[in-house]
Design brief:
Order of helices and strands of chain B: HEEEHHHHEHEEHEHEEHEHEH
Helix content of chain B: 25-40%
Strand order of the largest sheet of chain B: 9-8-10-11
Strand order of the largest sheet of chain A: 3-2-4-5
Shape of chain B: extended
Strand content of chain B: 15-25%
Distance between the termini of chain A: 26 Å
Largest sheet of chain A: 4 strands, parallel
Structural class of chain A: alpha/beta
Distance between the termini of chain B: 49 Å
Shape of chain A: globular
Number of strands of chain A: 9
Strand content of chain A: 15-25%
Oligomer: heterodimer
Chain lengths: 237, 393
């Protein structure tokens, strides 16, 4: 999932200060599941903002709503009209959702209330860890299922480095060294020798260094079926 | 003690009987009171007759006596401790027909008496039974009467789709045993079963299990985040598509509903919305300098003095969400006091942890919003005393 974290209330308060009517938008998918921007946080944030601003001021209004998935334009459409009535939209969706929202609403101010942190997994109660760097060229077959792009501080393709001590990374004694974990797992699988083969320098062109990435799947045959809906939405496919 | 039944037939727990005999009470079994003998206006003895059988072939209570087998027992006081009979005096002087024993005839299926618009239910209709059976019969009668009022027609009630519950899983039984009970150790010559104090009576009542009254997950809203599965103190949530609480395991503590990030869980009785608007904010604001409100766990044995100011009872404080506390602050309350049970007294075991989280979380939001309001935790006295936190308020 996309892991998010709500911004500090002071930060949010400062950003919403100039606006009178603010729509607070949550997202029903990743943001809900990681307790950063679902129905629950929308209600809490509306309540906290109103309290902070003082309940007596009748001109201010925080209106909460939650959209099933803000990163899908049809779902955005279900809330777009109400959002457009507001002076600003405080978005608790991830960066992807908030961008789509801004594109759709055009002139409405979009304020982020969360930080989009990483692609991660819920590894235990109240704990999320980054697991994938979205490099666009997965090679975890060579590292026994452990992603060095996301989990090695140096993104080393051949590790560990000299900063690895007792299975921990030098950046933080609480952080596991990805490469120590890779070696451990190779050992358990009886495939330690595989690691003697050096992984050559990678082609990072699929990564995040060549501008905005996009994905077109004309093989799916969906687009022809939904042109009518696209026409209605006014979105350029 | 004279009893119609023998040990096995008697509607009492073996332990109760043992307790009575242990106190030296002699129990005469299969005997019935024939008459009370008086001399000079005072009771001197009772005459007893033998009971041949207590129940008939259908298992109905229908004692048969043998008046020829009589014994006399000296006595100066007779305490009658027998079942009650329905009060049928209402039928006298009405067109409702009764038989020689004053009984009202009614159709056992439709509950209807021969007189239109009068229906019977419970023991009046079916003879002696348990209170639970009478309540169920009342529900059926209400169904028939409702149909009669709406259509003018008498018909049998809707078929009863109730089915026996599956047996409780062993671990659920264990956790239920931990629930409150006010049973005491018997002491010689002490009253074996003293009456209960208000707090004890409440705790005794709280042993109700709340079967099938628990959480319901709305599939549409559920984000399948697994939080309910993780926080349930009774492991009642079953992972599947969709996630669902096992209605037999779920005891309606409400922790899952409070923690659900999608607000996808509903409880069949009492939701935080029921806090409603306890006292209009304006009244609270104008009245006191710093109005306060207390939320007291229904299962707590003492109210900890929460009766000062506004106090509301909540069936387990773990049902509350942080936003519910913030809303009370928005209504003008400057102090929100929570009166939970302590860890040992918590009916649901794990609910206690959730309440601690609730206080810290809501208080944190108030601090960062710069609102001058407090959320306070007020523990039962014995916990506060044990941990040396002087004030339990």
């Amino acid at each position: 999932m996309i892991v998010l974290k709500q911004k500090a209330l002071d930060w949010i308060l400062e950003r919403v200060a100039p606006f009178r009517k603010v729509a607070v938008l949550g997202c029903g998918t990743c943001a809900t599941v990681c307790f950063a921007g679902g129905e629950r946080e929308v209600e809490e944030l509306c309540c906290a903002l109103q309290l902070a601003r003082g309940d007596e001021s009748p001109e201010t209004e925080f209106q909460g709503m939650t959209c099933e998935r803000v990163c899908d334009w049809e779902f955005v459409e279900t809330v777009a009209e109400s959002l457009a009535q507001a002076d600003a939209v405080l978005s608790l969706a991830c960066g992807a959702g908030s961008n789509l929202l801004a594109d759709r609403l055009g002139t409405t101010v979009i304020l982020p209330a969360v930080d989009t942190c990483f692609l991660g997994a819920n590894v235990g109660p109240e704990q999320w860890n980054e697991m994938c760097g979205a490099c666009g060229d997965c090679m975890i077959d060579r590292t026994f299922g452990i992603c060095p792009v996301a989990r090695c501080a140096k993104t080393l393709m051949n590790g560990p480095c000299g900063g690895s001590t007792g299975g921990k990374c030098e950046i933080d004694p609480d952080v596991d060294c990805a490469w120590a974990t890779i070696v451990e797992r190779a050992e358990a699988l009886g495939r330690l020798a595989d690691l003697e083969e050096v992984i050559p320098p990678r082609n990072w062109s699929t990564g995040r260094h060549g501008g905005q990435r996009s994905l077109n799947r004309s093989d799916l045959g969906i687009r022809k079926l939904c042109t009518e809906a696209l026409d209605e939405s006014g979105i350029e496919p | 003690m004279v009893c119609l039944e023998n040990d096995e037939e008697m509607p009492s727990e073996p332990a109760e009987l043992e307790l009575a005999r242990g106190e030296g009470i002699r129990v005469l079994l299969r005997q019935a009171l024939k008459r009370v003998l008086n001399r000079d206006g005072r009771i001197v003895a009772v005459e007893l007759m033998a009971v041949v059988s207590v129940f008939d072939e259908q298992g109905r209570f229908r004692p048969q006596y043998d008046p020829s087998r009589v014994r006399t027992l000296a006595a100066d006081t007779v305490i009658l401790s027998i079942g009650q009979a329905p009060d049928r005096s209402w039928a006298r002087g009405t067109p409702v027909p009764t038989d020689s024993r004053g009984r009202v005839a009614a159709d056992r299926e439709t509950h209807a008496t021969p007189h239109a618009g009068i229906f019977l239910a419970g023991e009046s209709l079916r003879g002696p039974g348990s209170a639970i059976e009478a309540v169920a019969d009342g529900h059926r009668a209400a169904d028939v009467v409702g149909h009669y009022l709406a259509t003018g027609k008498v018909s049998a009630p809707k078929p009863d789709d109730a089915r026996p519950l599956d047996p409780f899983p062993a671990d659920v039984m264990d956790s239920l045993r931990r629930m409150h009970s006010v049973a005491r150790e018997p002491e010689p010559f002490a009253e074996a079963e003293p009456s209960l104090s208000e707090g004890e009576a409440r705790r005794e009542g709280d042993r109700c299990l709340g079967c099938l009254a628990g959480a319901v997950i709305d599939e549409e809203t559920c984000a399948a985040c697994l939080t309910c599965f993780r926080v349930c103190p009774l492991d009642a949530v079953v992972i599947g598509d969709p996630l669902r609480p096992d209605p037999v395991r779920c005891q309606a503590c409400g922790v899952c509903a409070a923690m659900c990030p999608a607000h996808a869980i509903r409880l069949s009785f009492w939701e935080p919305e029921h806090l409603g608007d306890p006292v209009p904010a304006t009244a609270a604001r104008s009245g006191e300098a710093a109005p306060s409100i207390s939320l007291v766990c229904r299962y707590r044995s003492d109210d900890g003095g929460a009766t000062d100011g506004h106090a509301l009872t909540v069936p387990c404080l773990a049902r509350l969400r942080p936003v519910d506390l913030l809303r009370l602050v928005r209504r003008g309350y400057r102090t929100v006091r929570l009166y939970p049970c302590d860890e040992q007294g918590c009916k649901y075991g794990a609910a206690w942890g959730n309440i601690q989280f609730l206080v810290g979380y809501a208080d944190g939001i108030l601090r960062s919003a710069g609102v001058e309001a407090n959320v306070e935790l007020c523990l039962p006295e014995r916990t506060a005393a044990a941990s040396g936190e002087g004030e339990a308020e």
